[in-house]
Amino acid sequence: MTSTNPITIATFLVYIAGVFVLAALSHRVLVKKEFLSEYFLGSRGLLSWSLAFGFAATATSGGSFIGFPSLIYSYGWVLAFWISSYLIYPLCAMGVLGKRLNQVARKSGAITIPDVLRDRFESPALGLFTTCTILLFTTCNLVAQFKAGALIVEETFNLPESWGYTVGLLVFAVVVIVYTAYGGFRAVVWTDVMQGVVMGVGVVFLLPVIVSQVGGLDQVVERLKAQPPTLVTSIPGDNNDLAFILRRDSYESVPIIGLQYVLSETALVDPRVTLIEDTAGQGWVTRVELATNEASQVLTTAREVREAVMSDAVISDLLRVELAYENDGSKEVAPFATVHFVRGEERLFGPGRRPDGLPFHPLGLAVSFFIMWAITAMGQPGMMVRLMAFKDSKTLKRAMLIVTGYFALIYIPLVFIFTAARILLPYIPPESADKAMVLVATRIVGNLGPWHAVLAAVFVAAPFAAVMSTVDSFLLLISSSIVRDIYQRSINPKVTEKVARWMSYITTVIVGVIVTLLATRTIDFLQYIVVFTSSGFACTFLAPTFLGIYWKDMTREGALASAVGGLGVILLFFLPSVLGGSRVNLLGLHPVIWGLAASFFLGVFVSRFTGPSPGHLVRRYFYES
Amino acid sequence: MREVAVILSAWTICLVYTVTYCYLYGYLSHEGTPESTGPDIGTLVGPLSSFNRDPGSLTTPLGLAIPDWIFYGVVLPWALCILFSFWFCLFYFKEDDLGSEGTLGGGKVPDDVH
């Protein structure tokens, strides 16, 4: 196995030290100001660059630098289409709610999103409900982000597989919990600016290095086209049974009842399965090839499959493998599962192909994702709270411009880099696909020379920064929900600043520890958890907030129905996937579309029947300056 | 509210253009599957199978190694959106007063308010 260059490790440690320095500086500001407002909102004094990078870094989570690259690695250029609504994302996410939300929050003195909703509608029930929703989804998302952070540390320091993840998790947890708890919102913002710069620099420098390693721009497309068919990986719960069975530690004991192959019409030979180890020693890889000299056969155990004849033949005719196996602990024979393969040239086009042969990005999902990225972004509490924190309108204007340019700088190059990465690292195992970014940095770039080792550290720091910047915001979101929304506003309004201060520190640490414990179980497919939690947030928060700040006739009953209904629909549609099936894509559309539709409909419909809205609230939020 | 309307209009135009272009010109196959039932644009543009891409037809505009359908369907509109964002922020966006912390008073209330 190729190890990480020591210079890369040293540079990465310098970066971590920089994060702690910023936290310490932030703490010095914190002790001089009113605690809760400063700790959770930076005293509403964000300037353009800090707002822009804080917003961008929070949006650019571990999903963007860990999950997104693994999907690009698996499916190719269709991911540029998948992410395409980021072209208008900054305007939507910041411009639609920004100014008005900031005005409303100032009027009520709110420092959290549940604060805003509670005050706008004078509804403690709505405040508590939205607080609980934040706790639920933020915890889910944090667990996934902690996993991403742990993987980065594990790979960067080249830790052994047996305990590397656990140590990586502890290192990541200590770093992020300490600087967030100690420095509060301002530390989070300052580190976000630094992390935003690191992410941008990382991507910009990685691009030419990768192109050069592939052999030039003209080689990128040609070499990708020429790749042999490979198993699609990194997909959750999609009957990827072949990969699943053969990757388990106890693969020998899994009896395979039957195995058969389906060839293209032009195939002239029978296939055989060859499983090879990847060059980095990362594990067993299911590259399936055809042998040209023997007839197909039925193999009876996973071991037999694995030990099938090693073949040098590379084929283009194998379409899919079907296998049946005996379920663990029962005599039940599972039906034949079909695993499809993707040809190299398919990664240059849409819609991409999942292991079960269905399209990865069909039209219905293409429409859904375009709506989802830009529109659901408006409904994320972690980002909405940034919009409550900027200093003036000019700050927002400049920040929108910065984020627009910044996203263009990051996302298209990322697709380019990881389609090319498949050429350089063709056999990253499925369970390691989330490590694609780190593997590219440490295994390819880091070993090209001393300066490249420094660059590799920046590349590793980029996803680490992305994860940290999301985690720190979410940690504060949870602790603010507990300290401000539950304790101060519902239990003890007269809490002293000293008590609030210590409660905030302790809550942040406790939440971090709980999430760390939850993340000790490895979780697959980070990007899907990010999508689930983003959808849940949007369906709960967007309609009540949008209608509440722009529509004077919105009532508290309407707001509550909107939040509860939106959340209910998204949970209902995702429930089958929790129970082991697939989520419900009614009419081919993603659940978030139905959740948002239900939330907006209920908000308007119930408000019409329960109006009018109290006059003093209308006066306060719509007419008084 | 006018600013919100402009942003959402721009988003709608991007949605229609990018999704339509990429779906028609970037997909190897447009065959229907249980997962791909979505808006039926086939009634607008004719048989979708006529848009199936032949892998050999792929080009890379400007030699950038970016597939043609991504270049025209995503990269180009992205560049135009950056220009639009500059126009919006520099010439259309109003620098309204955001008010001061926790102040609740003074404004004129129209008669028709509840």
Question: Oligomerization state of this entry?
Answer: heterodimer
The global form of chain A is: globular
Question: Care to count the β-strands of chain A?
Answer: 6
Q: What letter string, H or E per element, gives the SSE order of chain B?
A: HHH
**What is the alpha-carbon Rg of chain A in Å?**
25 Å
Distance between the termini of chain A: 65 Å
Largest sheet of chain A: 4 strands, antiparallel
CATH topology title of the largest domain in chain A: Sodium/glucose cotransporter
Would you identify the CATH architecture of the largest domain in chain A? Answer: Up-down Bundle
Structural class of chain A: mainly alpha
Query: Which structural class fits the helix and strand makeup of chain B?
Result: mainly alpha
Strand order of the largest sheet of chain A: 1-6-5-2
Which radius of gyration of chain B do the C-alpha atoms yield?
22 Å
Helix content of chain B: 40-55%
Helix content of chain A: 55-70%
* Low-confidence residue ranges of chain B: 33-39, 103-114
Helix and strand pattern of chain A: HHHHHHHHHHHEHEEEHEEHHHHHHHHHH
Keywords:
heterodimer, A: 625 residues, mainly alpha, Sodium/glucose cotransporter, 2 domains, four-stranded antiparallel sheet, two-stranded antiparallel sheet, 23 helices, 6 strands, 4% strand, B: 114 residues, 3 helices, disordered C terminus
